[in-house]
User: What shape does this take?
Amino acid sequence: MKKGLSRRQFLATSTAAVAASALGGRDVQGQESTAESRQKQANGPDSAQSSFSRYSRYHPSFGGPPESDHYLGKLVPGLRQSGLPPVPFEAPDLGKIPWRMVGGVKEFEIRCTPVKREFLPGQFMNVWGYNGSLPGPTIEAFQGDRVRFVVHNELPEPTTFHWHGLELPVQFDGVPGLTQDLIPPGETYVYEYDLHQTGTFFYHSHVTMQESFGMAGFFIIHPRIAYDPPVDRDFGLIFQNFFISPNTATPDSMAMNWNWHTINGRSGPYTTPLVCKHGERVRIRLMDFSPMQHHPIHLHGHTFWLTGTEAGRIPPNAWVPRNTTLTGVAMAQDFEFIAFNPGDWIFHCHMTHHMMNHMTQQVGPRIRQKVDVSRYLADLPNRPPVESSLAQPAFEVPGYPQKMQGMEMNAEAMRKLNERRETRGMRKQWHEGVKGLMTVLRVLPEDLYNRVMHSEEAIQPGEIFEAVARRK
Amino acid sequence: MKISHSPRACNRLPVLGIIALALLFIFTSCASHNLPSLGGQPGQGALFEPENGTIAASPEQTGEGKPLFGGVSSPEPVLTEGEALSLSKLEALARQHNPTLAQAKAQIQSEHAKALEAGLYPNPVIGYIGEQISVRGTVGEFQGGFIRQKIVTAGKLRLSREKYQARASAAELLALAQMYRVINAVRMQFYRTLGAERKLEVQQELLETAEDRQVTVQEMFNVGQANRADLHQTRVLRQAQLLNVQQAENDLAMERETLGAIIGLLQPLGEVTGKLEAPLRHLVWEEALERLLAESPELAAAHANLKADEIMVQREKVEPIPNLFIEGSAGRNFEASETVYGVRAFVEVPLFDWNQGTIRQAKADWRRQRNEVRRTELSLRQSLADWFRRFRTALQKVTEYQNVILPQSEQRYVTRLKSYRADRETWPGVLEAQQDFFHRGLIYIDQLVAWRQAQVAIDGFLLVGGLEPPAGVVPPGHIDSVPKPR
Ligand SMILES: [Cu+2]
Assistant: This one.
């Protein structure tokens, strides 16, 4: 335990240590003792009586009793200073809606459109969204703004706009019949109001089937000055489900079961990893816009604080530490945590069916020896003889096989997965464990972060992961 | 009533001359009717061109040694073990071995024989006469011989011969019809056998699918996705499919037996080779009907029989015209001790029986035959309607199965296979599509066979039933039964 702790402590000084190690000046023991001495210096005189009270942004640590502001990193600030405007919001794979100032009003133009969205490499699905995107691009504004939305309905059927969680004049609430007439196809409707709230909100169609078809998007309202403790990263993820039969690309919005799962309009492993620097304070805003599925969201390797809901910021004395939190339909949750633990961490819904896509029964040639479907395709009128899988000894165990035999990714799909900067240096077969409602949080020491996100030098598969693992 | 003259003395030489003349006449009549020729009759021919699906009648001389229909006496061809049989080979075998063709040939010969017999001149009567024996102590007033000859008048023999020659023509046409029956039956049975071969293959594929489903459900059972009842059901389905395979095997074996029977071979047949598919040809009802009525051998035979009946009426009309009986005698008058001669002539007087009943009967037969022609036309039309309905329906089905149903069912199967490979489809879903694809194949084969059979029937003048006895020339109840055909 002590040795393990020391290794993690070492990561705090990883850059210097690697440089030193490369020079061949120190052995492992020497590195450990250096790290320990630094820790003692930082703790000061009362380190002996409260060895658990110290919280390090660079290695696992307790941070003191639950009442402590540093408990599990609760109020430990990020690397960014206080008193500044918030960091820009970042929703991977989604854009933002541009605005222009018109007479002191921020004016956004939104089109309701059919969308072809690439859920997985090469798998384009027919859904609906906004400005050609599913989910819709993010609306980002500040507390106190007056906003105007010029909404064009380019769908073949009527729609409305609802502003989820906003306290606005009733005539802009967007409920068909109750507060406004539906916007007919081809027509434009204008919403305009003041923003006095802050937090993670969203917009969506208030026509039920259109909601099932994906019509939603983030509406982030920032305070003018970022709340304390300030975060270094502000990520956003929208979770959605669809039922799409085999051999079609159009979801059945009437379905009661859901076999395609998307985060920001992509399924794992096509979801783009969230990449941050070791030691940063990170916020993830998570919104569930599934038709009828709640998602227990689980982050590996870190404990996070629940700091906001779809209603806005939670006062710190009501924050809840979690590893898993249940986000219900039409709910948003803000997570904050210190990214103290380097590595590639899965971040996912824990419902097993949501950890797979277009799941099918595993029986058939897939689990039989020496049987390939190509043999069937080669000579259709003469099917190959049946080979019994049951002769395999493993079949003596009821319940076998449970392993999902994994979709074969072709070279083109693999290229699409790995051409993204965010995935550089991950293990070669990383995609095998990332499916459905899954994405990856990459916590990288600064040098590795810079190599991945900024350098143009070639990075081999697994190179970054192994570098992180080596430093432990 | 005969007018009789007593033999009386006359000049010896003239009497002998009459006898000699009479004999000469008889013998020359005989000679002139020796073996009537069969050449040049309409409808003669052999059926060739088995591959292109149409029956063409090509003229063939019917001289000795090259008969119209292959003889049953030909040596049995030895089929090598497991020899694959093409349609042309099977047709050749049938021409050689089907007994109805020999029967039909015999019927032609029979009619020609009747024509021969009907035209033969009646034989003279030669006898001994002894009269007034013991008169005046002599051995008799007249001891000698006589010769009597019937002189046939009014062309009765010629008419009789023509009548039976017309019947022989009908027999030849009916033999041609029988050839069509045999060849059509061979072709239909060939396609049925071919279809049975292909259906057995498909049923075996379906058995593999059923076995696959059984394994699949056992796999599902192992992971809790199927239960015991499902396992029982897969065994039921697998066993039922095994029965389908067995039935297909039985069907194939019996189709082969049937084919052998139609051909006339007792030897077991092996696999037949050929194609069920062929370019699809549309038929127009009016054209098919016109061709049938113009060229049907059955209808032509009915017309030939009508001609025979017309001749028969003529023949019976001349029957009452009396024939002349002439009798010459020569002998010795022992009373007068000199050689004497006698001459007699008879004639039948049609006083009470002038053949009026038979004439009426013949006319009735003639009317009957006129309606037989009409009936044959209508029957052909009715039969063509039935075959045409089958043809049109089968053609439509074959076309749609080729153009849409089979390719689409195949694409469905392919889509699911690829989808399974991409982990988006379950294996039971693939098996369902596979089973549908094979089932469609079975239906398609049935439709191909139906289409082929209808096409053969329509092309072959609707003549089916290669082991039915060849039709007789004379309809039932026809007057004919006299020892001497007339
Ligand atoms: Cu979930």
